[in-house]
């Protein structure tokens, strides 16, 4: 699975957004480029800043060349051994503790269905995606997202 969690910095009232991609096998550079192409559609061509860990496919020569041709995408490298800075790690943790806990499906479709249910659960609670973002401790704008303001 590949996932992304983002928000509109110019219009935070629109809320945080999750997207994910599932395929058999592992992701290589070409598979991740396919994910990014779908992400471009998902975010409707808006500017995207993507924080990525040091996975070799994220920073391969082919990936860097492809990204250099994209005017909508900026990549930022997360520090090594710092999963706490990646909000998607909290997404995976939430799914593993609920929908995927003790799941013994016979097919990849069972995992996909359970994951999709989890994504819907998280999207239906607007505070969860924001909490994943704010838990990283990274600066986000606005500092208190609309559904997590301290005065509420």
Would you summarize the structure shown here?
With 152 residues, the protein is of the alpha+beta class. It has helices at residues 29-42, 61-68, 87-97, 108-123, 127-135; strands at residues 2-7, 16-21, 48-52, 73-77. Helix 3 (87-97) crosses helix 5.
Q: How would you characterize this protein structure?
A:
Residues 145-152 have low confidence and may be disordered. Helix 3 (87-97) packs across helix 5 (127-135). This protein has one domain: 2-Layer Sandwich (Nucleotidyltransferase, domain 5), CATH 3.30.420.10. The protein has helices at 29-42, 61-68, 87-97, 108-123, 127-135, and strands at 2-7, 16-21, 48-52, 73-77. It contains 5 helices and 4 strands, in the order E-E-H-E-H-E-H-H-H. The radius of gyration is 16 Å and the shape is globular. One of its GO terms (molecular function) is nucleic acid binding. It comes from Streptomyces hundungensis. This is Tc1-like transposase DDE domain-containing protein. InterPro entries: RNaseH_sf, Tc1-like_DDE_dom.
């Amino acid at each position: 699975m590949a996932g992304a969690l983002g928000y509109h910095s110019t219009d935070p009232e629109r809320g945080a957004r999750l997207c994910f991609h599932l395929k058999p096998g592992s992701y290589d550079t070409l598979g991740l480029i396919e994910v990014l192409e779908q992400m471009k559609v998902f975010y409707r061509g808006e500017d995207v800043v993507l924080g990525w860990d040091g996975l070799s496919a994220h920073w391969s020569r082919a990936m860097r060349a492809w990204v250099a041709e994209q005017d909508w995408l900026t990549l930022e490298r997360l520090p090594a051994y710092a999963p706490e800075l990646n909000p998607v790690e909290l997404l995976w943790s939430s799914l593993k503790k609920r929908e995927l806990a003790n799941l013994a499906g016979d097919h990849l479709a069972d995992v996909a269905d359970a994951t999709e249910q989890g994504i819907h659960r998280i999207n239906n609670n607007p505070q969860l995606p924001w909490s994943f973002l704010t838990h990283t401790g990274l600066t986000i704008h606005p500092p208190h997202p609309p559904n997590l303001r301290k005065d509420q």
